[in-house]
Amino acid sequence: MGGRSNERKPWAVPEFLAEPEDPDRRDWAATVLQTYFHDRRDAGDPLYTGAAFDRLAGGGDAPKVANRFTADDLSAVTMLSVSVDPRAALRMLETEADDLSALLAKIPAELDLIDADNHQIGPDSPADELWRRVDRYHPVGETTTSKLLARKRPRLLPVIDSVVREVLAITWSGDYWRQMRDYLREESPRWEFLRAAHAAAGLADGISLLRCFDVLLWMSRQPGCPPPSWGTRHSPA
């Protein structure tokens, strides 16, 4: 996923991020995050199962398990509507567990993507090698691989799926991590927008800003998403 450099089209800017310093957009983002992470059904379970992905069983980046894939990680990705093939699971948990753990140990758990250098997320980096190892476990595939790695390194490695591709108009994902880093760096208010929305939503520290961006992209295409509020605050009566 580190990929090689290649000519590519600029990513699209979703409407909610078009003016990242707009307080109406920040308020909307906070409301969306509260809806996704905090709302509950009558029985008490989350309105969106993905709300449990990050912190299920203490989180995939908890110190005791940060450098090893566990059964809890495989359960967590089901919260995001994917599953791991049984043979792939056996490799991750048993036969190749030590090799994967050695790679995870080389990938910092406390590093945000926006601060990552090319040697940490580029071609032939430990993260890139881990991606290639997991992605080759047929039929895991790109989306499930990204969710497994996002579970282990939520601040550094983002999810990629069909909704992310659609909203950001991604035509080539071979260098996805560096593209995402540069996209969020391009205008620093984008990262501060996510930080402000995270704080306003009252989210726990264990929910990364990168995960917030993923949720906002996904929710912006869901029928239950709160409607946009920007452009209405000063509208004439």
List the helices and strands and how they pair.
Blueprint: H1 23-38, H2 71-78, H3 86-95, H4 97-104, H5 118-121, H6 126-135, H7 141-152, H8 162-168, H9 176-186, H10 189-200, H11 209-219
Helix pairs in contact: 1-10, 1-11, 2-7, 6-7, 10-11
Task: Tell me what the structure shows.
- With 237 residues, the protein is mostly helical.
- The protein has one domain (15-219).
- It has eleven helices and no strands.
Counting DSSP E segments of at least 2 residues, the number of strands comes to 0
- What's the order of the H and E elements? HHHHHHHHHHH
User: Nearest-angstrom radius of gyration?
Assistant: 18 Å
Content of β-strand: under 5%
The termini sit apart by 51 Å
Q: Summarize the amount of helix as a percent range.
A: 40-55%
Structural class: mainly alpha
Low-confidence stretches: 233-237
Mean pLDDT: 92
**What does the overall shape look like?**
globular
Largest sheet: none
**What's the number of domains?**
1
Enumerate how many helices there are, as a single number: 11
